[in-house]
Amino acid sequence: MTAPLTSNPGLGGRRAWLVFGLGVAAYGTAVLGRTSLGVAGLTAVEHFNSRASIIATFVVLQLLVYTAMQIPAGVLLDRFGSRTMVTIGLATMGVGQFVMALADSVPVAIVGRMILGAGDAFVFSSVIRLLPSWFPPRRVPIITQLVGLSGQAGQIVSALPFAWLLASRGWRVAFVSISVVALAGAAGTWAVLRDRPPG
Predict the structure, then answer these.
(1) According to the model, what pLDDT value does residue 64 have?
(2) Exposure on the CB side of residue 184, measured as CA atoms within 13 A
(3) Domains of the chain: total
(4) Residues 29, 90 contacting (CB under 8 angstroms)
């Protein structure tokens, strides 16, 4: 006799919580990348020898790209699945942060932030898409809230360790470090994350 679908041992089990942890880490990394320039605002003014109003356009353009990419991100998510899209999103954000690390002019930095915004658009929706496949339906709403809340730890990382690194080691080291975190997250996602439990 075939076991009912609801008896899947992977649903809500230890592997599901591993997926949850990877999802939180991915979203937290996205939040870290998204908020890093807010922490580095004054340093950016000095680094690019520019006005604060010009630096503020970085955030606006990043948000515009993020918003514009929502529909394409949804279409690609339906086609390729969460594992692929989280990996691409984090890798793209890592590239954007690397461009920021090397940028010595405002136009190059704007390109870096736009790349970052494009990658950011893939992450949260892809993580949320995983949850119904790994957790019982009654638990999905609260798990979704936990992902959103826990992922905000990325703001704490940008406000404390990243800010310290920026002040003590400088612009390039700080942004290269975030780039490495995002790229490592992409590699870890590809290696470990799965769209659904086996079977």
Answers:
(1) 93
(2) 8
(3) 1
(4) yes
Structural tokens at position 42 = 């004054």
The boundaries of the domain holding residue 156 are: 11-192
Q: Is residue 188 part of a domain?
A: yes
Residue 74 is encoded by which pair of tokens? Answer: 């949804």
Residue 199 located in a structural domain = no
Q: What is the DSSP letter of 4?
A: P
Tens digit of each residue's pLDDT (9 = 90 or more) over 100-158: 999 999 999 999 999 999 999 999 999 999 999 999 999 999 999 999 999 899 889 98
Q: Please give the model's pTM, rounded to 2 decimal places.
A: 0.89
Which residue ranges of the chain lie beneath pLDDT 70? 1-10, 12
Q: Based on the number of CB atoms within 10 Å of its own CB, is 80 exposed (0-12), middle (13-18) or buried (19 or more)? A: middle
In the structure encoding, which two tokens stand for residue 114, read together?
Answer: 């736009």
CATH at residue 147: 1.20.1250.20
For residue 194, give every residue at least 6 positions away whose Cβ sits within 8 Å of its Cβ, in sequence order, or none.
Answer: 19, 83
From the number of C-beta atoms within 10 Å of its C-beta (0-12, 13-18, 19+), residue 46 rates as exposed
